[in-house]
């Protein structure tokens, strides 16, 4: 079973092809659990399975490292856009099109490593949701929506990552979020620049970057007037990501996420040993 490991700003993924039934009979949730663990596989934040799609270049199914499924992944989408182009699944570098559970994703190559993807438009935006521990913004991208909570914190909060992690874990399971939520902590770092850290559901910890989290951050900060204009530069532990969008009154459209991709390795995934 061949795999390709890639990362987008440190957010890592195992990419598997199932274009011709290569994974028929496999339990994909179990594969994600086994192969995303660094103890029983190459290790990654998630696993992406590529399938054929009659209306797009291909489709992507996303699995978190705990075996749960996700509606979409922004950093993963950039990685599979590059993978698809370099493996002949699509031919037009300016018009890459693939399907995720959250909807149709459009992407394009900017240069050898940087790709831009159009994130799904927000289906739910609640700029002031109370959690019992304060206020945050709640944004769902796509339909079905990928849930994100955005919490603005002072820069000093990033000095105690353990305390921030516990806060993120509590908010991720807060009952005010019907599907749970990815939780992004953010502080302003300049006119159009912010620092951010995201506690991701399914990984159940901070990751080095979260692409859809960056989209939710941009929606929250721009609609709340915390960031002027239509572009936000977001510094995450794994690197720099950029989001620009089109604003229509109190709504936003066309969220474009730009960032790096990197090939880590290619290899063969071995089946588990037979039990005695």
Q: Which descriptors would you attach to this protein?
A:
276 residues; alpha+beta; Diaminopimelate Epimerase, Chain A, domain 1; 18-stranded mixed beta sheet; 18 strands; 17% helix
Characterization of the model:
This protein has 276 residues and is α+β, with helices and mostly antiparallel strands. It has an 18-stranded mixed sheet that branches. The protein has two domains: 2-118 and 262-268, Roll (Diaminopimelate Epimerase, Chain A, domain 1); 122-258, Diaminopimelate Epimerase, Chain A, domain 1 (Roll), CATH 3.10.310.10. The radius of gyration is 18 Å and the shape is globular. Strand 10 and strand 11 (146-152) form a beta hairpin. It contains four helices and 18 strands. It has helices at 28-36, 74-86, 161-172, 211-223, and strands at 2-8, 11-17, 46-51, 58-64, 69-70, 96-100, 103-109, 114-119, 122-130, 135-141, 146-152, 182-188, 193-200, 205-207, 231-236, 239-248, 251-260, 262-268.
Mean pLDDT: 95
The CATH class of the largest domain is identified as Alpha Beta
Note the beta-strand portion.
35-45%
The CATH architecture of the largest domain would be Roll
General form: globular
| Rg | 18 Å
Distance between the termini: 23 Å
Walk me through the topology.
Blueprint: E1 2-8, E2 11-17, H1 28-36, E3 46-51, E4 58-64, E5 69-70, H2 74-86, E6 96-100, E7 103-109, E8 114-119, E9 122-130, E10 135-141, E11 146-152, H3 161-172, E12 182-188, E13 193-200, E14 205-207, H4 211-223, E15 231-236, E16 239-248, E17 251-260, E18 262-268
Parallel strand pairs: 2-3, 4-6, 11-12, 13-15
Antiparallel strand pairs: 1-2, 1-18, 3-4, 4-5, 6-7, 7-8, 8-17, 9-10, 10-11, 12-13, 13-14, 15-16, 16-17
């Amino acid at each position: 079973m061949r795999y390709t490991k890639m990362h987008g700003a440190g957010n890592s993924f195992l990419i598997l092809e199932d274009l011709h039934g290569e994974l028929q009979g496999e339990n994909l949730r179990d594969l994600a659990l086994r192969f995303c663990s660094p103890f029983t596989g190459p290790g990654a934040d998630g696993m992406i399975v590529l399938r054929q799609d009659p209306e797009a270049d291909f489709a992507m199914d996303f699995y978190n490292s705990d075996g749960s499924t996700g509606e979409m992944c922004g950093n993963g989408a950039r990685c599979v856009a590059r993978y698809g182009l370099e493996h002949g699944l699509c031919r037009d570098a300016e018009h890459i099109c693939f399907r995720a559970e959250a909807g149709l994703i459009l992407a394009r190559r900017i240069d050898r490593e940087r790709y831009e993807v159009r994130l799904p438009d927000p289906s739910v935006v609640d700029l002031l949701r109370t959690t019992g521990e304060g206020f945050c913004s709640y944004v769902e991208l796509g339909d079905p929506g990928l849930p994100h909570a955005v919490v603005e914190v002072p820069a000093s909060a990033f000095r105690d990552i353990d305390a921030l992690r516990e806060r993120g874990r509590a908010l991720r399971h807060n009952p005010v979020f019907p599907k749970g939520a990815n939780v992004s902590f953010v502080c302003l770092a300049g006119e159009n620049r912010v620092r951010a850290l995201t506690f991701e559901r399914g990984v159940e910890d901070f990751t080095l970057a979260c692409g859809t989290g960056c989209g939710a951050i941009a929606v929250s900060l721009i609609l709340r007037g915390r960031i002027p204009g239509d572009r936000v530069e977001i510094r995450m532990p794994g690197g720099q990501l950029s989001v620009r969008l089109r604003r229509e009154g109190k709504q936003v459209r066309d969220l474009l996420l730009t960032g790096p991709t990197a090939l880590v390795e290619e290899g063969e995934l071995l089946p588990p040993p037979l039990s005695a």
